[in-house]
Here is the input.
Amino acid sequence: MGENSRIEWCDHTFNPWIGCQRVSPGCVNCYAEARDHRFTGGANWGSKGTRTVTSESNWRKPLKWNRDAAAAGVRAKVFCASLADVGEDRPELRGPRARLALLIQNTPWLDWLLLTKRVEDFHRLFSEHWGDEWPENLWAGCTVENQEYADKRIPELLRVPARVRFLSCEPLLGPVDLEGVAGHPFGCEGLMGCEPKIHWVICGGESGPNARPMHPDWARSLRDQCEAAGVAFFIKQWGEWLPGGCNLNGPRWPHGGEPAGWRNSRVQYFADGDEYTFRVGKHAAGRLLDGREHSAFPEVGR
Here is the structure.
């Protein structure tokens, strides 16, 4: 619940509490919900579920990470929270949220990556603690799984006075035009020398038994938009499904073809009919787009 992370874009994960409820299509196959059903029967999930604050030993871990980072002279990134949504507005979370706000302020060698699907509530709730002067080590992000939620969430994110703002386009369920909703380049209105208001875009496909495929053109579009705007771009994973055109470790199977011995359920075609994808599992699918890893982080001064 709070340790060195397997997530490619951070060093640690920290969960101040556990529990959430679905709010959009990206939540349908939520790994955290599946985990909660496995271990608690779903006691922490949904509107009637509880929200369980994690242990005191877990809350002490960021203090150690901060000391270690200070001693090494190297900042560390902490993703908070992988098993909850810090923007969820519930009465029993007021105390833990206040404690989290103070913890972030007291760990200046950690860059805290707070990701939410409830960015409008997130802004309001943490402004109660920080006003208009948010900590410099706070990175604010929102999930954007398709154009509908890009249109809803990005304008709210642009109001957040964080030093770094980022988008998690995972699971990416459709194409997303960032310029159309955030301006060019991404909220900067095209002014020469102006720093973009969106600093980082993470892209990823879905994993798990019911994972939905990500079209490679959706990822390519985000890559190209970020490159044009000077915004850092990071591909986290393809997920369970690898598009045929990205199969660089073997032959590109012809349209209508299928690997010998594979069940039909392991090959799917996208609606455009020009691209297909096959289920190979998260590990085998990897994270290469057109033969290249994209692992950029935002360059921001302190």
